Amino acid sequence: MESPRNAAATLESAERIILRWDSTASEEARDRMIFDGDRREIDTYLTAVDEIQRSMESTALADDQSKASTAIQIAMARLEDEFRNLLISHAGPIEPDSCVFDPSSVSSSRRSSASSIESSRYYSEDDVSREFDVVQRGAGDGEGEDSSTPSYRSTNSIREIDLIPAEAISDLRSIAERMISAGYTRECVQVYGSVRKSAVDAGFKKLGVEKLSIGDIQRLEWEVLETKIRRWIRAAKACVRILFASEKSLCQQIFDNLGTATDEACFVETVKGPAIQLFNFAEAISISRRSPEKLFKILDLHDALSNLLPDIDAVFQSDSAESIRVQAAEILTRLAEAARGILSEFENAVLREPSKVPVPGGTIHPLTRYVMNYISLISDYKQTLIELIVSKPSTGSRYSGDPSIPDMDFAELEGRSPLSLHLIWIIVILQFNLDGKSKLYKDDSIAHLFMMNNVHYIVQKIKGSPDLRELIEDDFLKKLTGKFQQVANSYQRSTWVRVLYCLRDEGLHVSGSFSSGVSKTALRERFKAFNSNFDEVHRIQATWLIPDTQLREELRISVSEKLIPAYRSFLGRFRSHIESGRHPETYIKYSVEDLESALLDFFEGYPVSQHLRRRSQ
């Protein structure tokens, strides 16, 4: 046991060292930092602090207690300055190139394509690689490495970066240990949180995370927000899996086992504000005004946050960080609600789409293109939406009795997923709306052509998307194909029956000993009627448009297979009766070849003036 005299000498020596570095009394102490000096000077000062603390625990003399208390206050003020200086000197912002992750390590249990949704649909893989180059480094002990080079430790999708060199961490821990043991935990935590929060804020800026309030975000135009959402998704992955995880690791290295949950207190002090700022963006999107164009970015946000949620739970697992976990989970719920609400509103918008001007030429209606492209994109998110859409459409019943709503018996579709029922319902109400628009045409033929164009487009879009076809299923696709065949047949009947009717034999034959058996007058009238009807059909339907090349050719062939043989036969039977009279060219206007050539003009969508010029040439 140390003698009282030796103990007093040791205490006096320690006090002298402490007072020497009192920045309030010494200009030298103000100009220099202990931990910027050599190791021996650092160790000497820390030993002096330890001696003062021991003396406070062991001495019973009032004078000694007072002197030690004053010395410890001076020492703690000095250590606080040293702690702050060490943190600031290593508080450079995280660089985007440091925020790297291996996409193969990202949890993707929800759907295999989740990690590629943003890159495949909204920006190229080159863009992604420029933002986050995939860097794989070993988790060695760092010996022989430049202290400025971050090392990486990977746990599933979380990748921790050493934000501060190991030697500096050791110094910070030695200071924190003495401040906490002296009862200065609050001061230590506040200094740490203040400096590191500034470093996190700088990292946010480097990663493109903006300081925007919920109100600021909701006032932005959607086109601007789309770009910000894409950037936010990339930044959020880096913030949670790298930046926040690395901050937590740093806190543990400095404060682990120093006091009660001091590391968690420092971590929350550092990142709670930035984390709230980060998630406020997704929250603002989740509660913004709903409209169909927002669905896919909301689903991107939902997928990103859903994939991040296990990492958020892991990084913010302490009780003091519960509010961050709760906020993230609530935002995810609101994003899901927003997606369901938008889908429902989209269905209603398709049903009520009000345009009353028929599209020229009976071509594909813009609504058809929009709706089918929209639900094709919906099918790209089928794994997410199958989880989110849990109830069938709220409208559409065979017994609804509402003439403004199509009849649909969902019992016929038993066993389908709710998402499948919603997509089928959208197609049903699209057809219903198109049926109404077809009645805007005064000519039945173009009304049928309009429906043929649009139903064909619907069928082809389903066939062209494996995911959409899987959701729609072949039995409903067969119904659509049947509908197409029905309107195609209706077109042919409404257009060509009256033309072909001119080529019948009935009414041409007469009886009598001096007759050839054919009434030339009736025959001339029949040819004139055919010419007139065909001219009219040709003049009008050359201005109509079938945009699908294959469908256009198939319909021409179908018409040709009925018209050309009938005309060739009629011409063969009765040509001689016309040619034996005067001015046969007045009645036989078309050769078979002329008809075949004229049919090539059909459904090209020629302007009327252009078509007239073509026929006059």
TrEMBL record:
Keywords assigned: Exocytosis, Protein transport, Transport
GO function term, MF aspect, one: phosphatidylinositol-4,5-bisphosphate binding
Residue ranges of domain Exocyst complex subunit Exo70 C-terminal in the record: 231-601
Gene Ontology BP term (one): exocytosis
A Pfam short name: Exo70_N
Keyword Protein transport assigned: yes
Composition skew (Low complexity), residue ranges: 104-122
Keyword Cell wall biogenesis/degradation among record annotations: no
Region of interest (Disordered), residue spans: 98-122
Gene Ontology cellular component terms for the protein in this record: exocyst
InterPro entries in the cross-refs: Cullin_repeat-like_dom_sf (IPR016159), Exo70 (IPR004140), Exo70_C (IPR046364)
UniProt similarity note: Belongs to the EXO70 family.
Function, in words: Component of the exocyst complex.
Alphabetical list of PANTHER family matching this protein: EXOCYST COMPLEX PROTEIN EXO70, EXOCYST SUBUNIT EXO70 FAMILY PROTEIN
Name of the featured protein: Exocyst subunit Exo70 family protein
